């Protein structure tokens, strides 16, 4: 009985196998840039590659978002069926590199001079064990304020330079009858805002020690308590209905003038652009008060997999095109981020983009370019998510005091390490 | 004994005389097994094989990728410690208490409401053919659709509260979906809305199967309507209760998409169920061992509830 079953199974499964024909002139790409502007930006890359004779093939991902794509990637890699490249974030690249499935682009990197043009902080994620394993596509920075200019004029506000200025500005907005702070109460948005609060409260050195080096003394210091108190202060300025709101809806509140300001990464600019708003006249972009001169970043990378030799040429072409100055400029103008190399001319960028490029360059040279913990560039995902848990529980009241928050933060990060 | 002997005698000459027929008959015997084999193998590998694999992984220190070196029950120790961290609540504590609240209320309310609706519909009312599918249709929606629709409806800025404010009832206040202590009850509301119509249909089928003679006999004996249902109808519906319970229990335990679509995890993760915990830890936090351990605990919990119930129900009615 059992033997018959086994034979039957073998018969049936033999139908499943079929031959795989490998196309050399093809780039297989796993990504989740499928919506409007992002897809258009990626089209530039597709065209660049097709000029060189390489076909583009999207690896389909069911369900869209980044989580689904990462699950799909895990399955593909486990099956030994590597894509040419995949959109990846932060520590994911290093995890895959440690598992030994990433390719080696060092030769191309040398030829193209990536070592010099890509900021050193980014190379932490694109270079593993001395080998280039990923091509950074862009740099997003997180410590931005996005302000509706009409509302700002109405309440007579000026650019806040310190945290206290910022609180005073929010008070003015409250008195003026608008929602002062647009926030989406999802854990990553709260934590993204808290990144900026910590940098503002403790300064660059403190941010680095606490959120990049995970130094326990800093994590449980009084400065961290003060940061949580400042966060609690900011949360008093949100509308009662903020919990669970998506980030782009919060941005829309600022665009429509229902709210004065949102603290969000520069992907928010894409929403303003889509609504046909101009920086300087319709909206204002300032660094989060007290963080001028520093940049908290995250970055999209194209991780390059260890594909068979006959597919390497396509991979090199993709990597070269990705880090070419023309693509870096064209893509990032649309995406709202800034180029991942510091030698790209800023002529095509708007005022906010120009400021972003200058800030990135300065921060890179001054050593004040830090990975965002909330966005997974400060520590591995387990730690980053434990951090988001604590911040979110503090915002929503499961954690009641800043003392408790600091204790929980140390405990959660310890647990996740 | 004689039958067996006869069969043997009858079979043997045939077997000798026509070997080709024997091949065919053997093939005929084997055919159902061959056809069943792929699905059998698929079930063995993809259900039971992966259960074993998950149990194995929960004893390793797998992070992003599975690792195969056994490192002991560290994942279980962490879960055990988290089980008692109630202030501030650990994610695991939140998940299992939510499972208790959601599981109990969802199953209980669905059964009660389903039975109630079925009894009302069974009163030979006009328009039953229209009413029945109206109640049944929510079941045809996916949890995602249910979740998104209820998310909008319950959102104080968009749905019910906003509408009532516009109609002039400005003191009306209903913000459970934004409240960390009540958000799990909104998941119950949406879940009950979706499933109670289906449970009603099951009970309705059960009610139609009850012999009318028994009811008439009871009425002649002077039973009131309440007594009739309490003493006769509901006890007769016991097999339906069993089926409905099993359907609801597995829906409750595998609820994941409803929480995600309705609450995106709730304020500060306060709407998590164990399935959300499992997915979050395995795929987002790269703590595969902890995720696997939580999956194993879910499986053991289901087993602990379902097996005794099935055993007691099925043993009492030998057929």
TrEMBL record, chain A:
One of its GO terms (cellular component) is periplasmic space. Residues 1-21 form the signal peptide. It comes from the Bacteria. It holds the Pfam family SBP_bac_1. The keyword Transport applies. Keywords: Periplasm, Signal, Sugar transport, Transport. It is found in: Periplasm. Belongs to the bacterial solute-binding protein 1 family. This is Probable sugar-binding periplasmic protein. It comes from Mesorhizobium amorphae CCNWGS0123.
TrEMBL record, chain B:
The chain crosses the membrane at residues 34-56, 99-122, 134-153, 182-207, 228-253, 288-311. It holds the Pfam family BPD_transp_1. GO terms for cellular component: plasma membrane. PROSITE patterns: ABC_TM1 (PS50928). This is Binding-protein-dependent transport systems inner membrane component. Residues 96-311 form the ABC transmembrane type-1 domain. Keywords: Cell membrane, Membrane, Transmembrane, Transmembrane helix, Transport. It is a multi-pass membrane protein. Belongs to the binding-protein-dependent transport system permease family. It comes from Mesorhizobium amorphae CCNWGS0123. One of its GO terms (biological process) is transmembrane transport. It is found in: Cell membrane.
């Amino acid at each position: 009985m059992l033997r018959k079953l086994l034979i039957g199974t073998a018969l049936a499964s033999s139908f499943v196998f079929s031959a795989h024909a490998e196309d050399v002139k093809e780039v297989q790409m796993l990504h989740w840039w499928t919506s409007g502007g992002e897809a258009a930006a990626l089209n530039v890359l597709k065209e660049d590659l097709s000029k060189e004779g390489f076909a583009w093939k999207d690896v389909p991902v069911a369900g869209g978002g980044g989580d689904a794509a990462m699950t799909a990637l895990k399955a593909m890699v486990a099956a030994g069926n590597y894509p040419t490249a995949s959109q990846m974030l932060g520590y994911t690249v290093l995890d895959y590199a440690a598992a030994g499935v990433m390719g080696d682009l060092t030769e191309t990197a040398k030829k193209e001079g990536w070592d010099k043009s890509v900021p050193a902080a980014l190379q932490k994620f694109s270079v593993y064990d001395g080998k280039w394993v990923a091509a950074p596509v862009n740099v997003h920075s997180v410590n931005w304020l996005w302000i509706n200019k009409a509302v700002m004029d109405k309440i007579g506000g000026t650019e806040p330079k310190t945290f206290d200025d910022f609180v005073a500005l929010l008070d003015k907005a409250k008195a003026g009858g608008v929602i002062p702070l647009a926030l989406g109460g999802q854990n990553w948005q709260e934590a993204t805002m808290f990144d900026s609060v910590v940098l503002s409260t403790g300064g660059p050195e403190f941010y680095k020690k606490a959120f990049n080096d995970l130094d326990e003394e800093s994590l449980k210091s009084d400065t961290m308590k003060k940061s949580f108190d400042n966060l609690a202060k900011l949360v008093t300025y949100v509308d009662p209905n903020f919990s669970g709101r998506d980030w782009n809806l919060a941005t829309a509140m600022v665009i429509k003038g229902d709210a004065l300001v949102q603290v969000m990464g520069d992907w928010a600019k894409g929403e303003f652009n889509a609504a046909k708003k101009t920086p300087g006249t319709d909206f204002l972009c300032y660094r989060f008060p007290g963080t001028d001169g520093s940049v908290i970043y995250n970055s999209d990378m194209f991780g390059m997999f260890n594909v068979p030799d006959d597919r390497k040429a396509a991979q090199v072409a993709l990597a070269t095109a990705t880090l070419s100055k023309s693509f870096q400029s064209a893509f990032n103008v649309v995406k709202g981020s800034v180029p991942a190399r510091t030698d790209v001319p800023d002529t095509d960028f708007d005022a906010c983009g120009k400021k972003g490029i200058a800030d990135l360059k300065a921060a890179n040279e001054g050593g004040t370019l830090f990975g965002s913990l909330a966005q997974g560039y400060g520590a591995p995902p387990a730690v980053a998510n434990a951090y988001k848990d604590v911040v979110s529980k503090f915002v929503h009241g499961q954690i009641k005091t800043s003392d408790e928050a600091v204790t929980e933060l140390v405990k959660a990060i310890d647990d996740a390490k | 004994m004689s039958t067996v002997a006869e069969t043997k005698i009858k079979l043997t000459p045939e077997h000798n005389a026509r070997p080709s027929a024997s091949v065919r008959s053997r093939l005929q015997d084997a055919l159902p097994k061959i056809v069943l084999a792929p699905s059998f193998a698929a079930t063995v590998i993809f259900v039971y094989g992966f259960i074993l694999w998950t149990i194995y992984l929960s004893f390793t220190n797998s992070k992003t990728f599975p690792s195969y070196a056994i490192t002991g029950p560290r994942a279980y120790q962490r879960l055990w410690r988290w089980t008692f961290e109630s202030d501030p609540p650990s994610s695991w504590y939140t998940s299992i208490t939510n499972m208790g609240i959601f599981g109990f209320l969802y199953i209980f309310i669905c059964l009660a409401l389903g039975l109630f609706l079925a009894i009302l519909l069974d009163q030979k009312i006009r328009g039953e053919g229209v009413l029945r599918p109206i109640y049944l249709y929510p079941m045809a929606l996916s949890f995602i659709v249910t979740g998104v629709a209820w998310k909008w409806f319950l959102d104080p800025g968009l749905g019910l509260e906003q509408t009532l404010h516009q109609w002039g009832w400005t003191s009306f206040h209903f913000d459970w979906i934004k409240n960390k202590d009540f958000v799990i009850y909104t998941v119950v509301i949406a879940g009950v809305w979706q499933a109670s119509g289906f449970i009603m249909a099951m009970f309705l089928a059960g009610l139609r199967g009850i012999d009318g003679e028994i009811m008439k006999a009871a009425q002649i004996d002077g039973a009131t309507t309440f007594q009739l249902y309490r003493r006769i109808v509901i006890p007769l519906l016991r097999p339906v209760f069993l089926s409905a319970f099993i359907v609801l229990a597995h829906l409750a335990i595998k609820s994941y998409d409803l929480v995600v679509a309705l609450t995106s995890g709730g304020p500060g993760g306060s709407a998590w169920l164990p399935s959300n915990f499992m997915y979050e830890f395995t795929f987002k936090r790269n703590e595969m061992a902890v995720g696997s351990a939580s999956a194993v605990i879910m499986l053991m919990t289901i087993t602990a509830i379902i097996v005794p119930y099935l055993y007691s129900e099925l043993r009492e009615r030998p057929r």
